[in-house]
């Protein structure tokens, strides 16, 4: 009977399971999406979402708590520097699990687990595209200003030449 067992043990000992989830969480934070089995993806979601919630508030205490789970300095730094600002307004649901079929070797049900805010295809906000468009417009404005500046100088030279021609005409008359 499985009375009171609230999580999937994944057929591993407690230490092996915690090491597996820790390594998978580090990979998810580093690469923003990973391929795994559906059971491991669901267990990883339960493991990593509270860590993402803690990362929203950057305090020494929260960093130490997250480090106690991940045991990887680079992953903790990546989490607090790049992931946390993107998920700041989100109230949970930081990961998405997409089933991808069956593995050829053992027919295990596989899935793609990813951080929701880092997928440009499903993200309707697409803030990055807006910033790149603004920067492109700014460069075209700078080029337009640069292009107009020589034209102004040429116009300034042209009246001088006309003025010289008009003085010659006046002397001829």
Write up what this structure looks like:
With 173 residues, the chain is mainly alpha-helical. The chain has 5 helices and 3 strands; from the N terminus they run αβαααββα. A hairpin with a 6-residue loop joins strand 2 and strand 3. The longest helix is centred in the last third of the chain and has 46 residues.
Shape: globular
Order of helices and strands: HEHHHEEH
* Radius of gyration, in angstroms, nearest whole number: 30 Å
What number is the mean pLDDT?
A: 83
Total helices: the number is: 5
> In percent terms, what proportion of residues is strand?
5-15%
User: Tally of extended strands?
Assistant: 3
Low-pLDDT runs of 5+ residues are none
Topology record:
Elements: H1 14-31, E1 33-37, H2 38-55, H3 60-70, H4 73-86, E2 95-102, E3 109-115, H5 127-172
Antiparallel strand pairs: 1-3, 2-3
Helix pairs in contact: 1-2, 1-4, 3-4
Key features?
single chain, 12% strand, mainly alpha, 3-stranded antiparallel sheet, 173 residues
Provide a concise account of the structure shown.
The chain contains five helices and three strands.
